[in-house]
User: Fold this.
Amino acid sequence: MENRNLKVGVIGLGLIGGSILKALNKINTPQTFELIGISKSSHRKAAQFCTLSSPNIKDVKNCDIVFVCSKMSETLGVLDELENIVSRDCIVADVSSLKRFVNKKKYSFNFIGSHPMAGTEFSGFEASFAELFYDAKWILNKHNETLEDLIKKMGAKPIILDENTHDKHACLISHLPMLISTALLNTVIKEDESALGIASSGFRDTTRLSLTDADLALDMLELNEDNFEIYIDKFIENLKELKNMSKMEFINTLKSIQKIRKTMYDDNGKNKLS
Assistant:
């Protein structure tokens, strides 16, 4: 399927959906495909970035690709709605940060679980920007040449990963850090809130994920509960192990960890590990 024939819909125009719309609009010069933006609250703001901006989900009826960027708690409901709207050949990709819960059901359209590994602590269409996905990894649960080509054009790198492995990894590198970030800030508030007055960049960076949208954080905890049960305990074990190490053990462990950490990111903060 050539881009010239594509009609692409984006449902939900928050940070991720808005950034997808803006990224597609940016690469759509000269215009080679149609863009449909769907949002009950932001469709007017999005009008300049798409062919049609609407609050009505039925307007994606003739789309070849639809990105479902609704809140994670609303994603299954949107996918159910699409069963009666799009054709069986339509490629539908969600962007939820968990994948098992959306893959439990079989859909009449060509569903592909996806998760762009990009984001900020901010939310809403106003916070979205076309460059969000540059050099970011974008997880897909199965290959699809048309979708992968579009993702590459947005600047991201498609990676195929099954839903079980994805949710395990997401817990370790995204959802658990969110909980740790929140627990750290909560500890300072409870023990000596006045310490916040002298906090600088290290504390700022370490607690950034405590700004995660509360509904999203709750969805992470509930929909990935089994992995959380394992890795919260593992984290506590590792924390106690570090605390009880001898000086030499601690120094050697720290140096070993730092060696890995130094190889992870490029000068622009993008993960360069394969």
Observations:
- The mean pLDDT is 93.
- Helices lie at 15-27, 72-82, 145-153, 163-192, 201-206, 214-223, 225-243, 247-262.
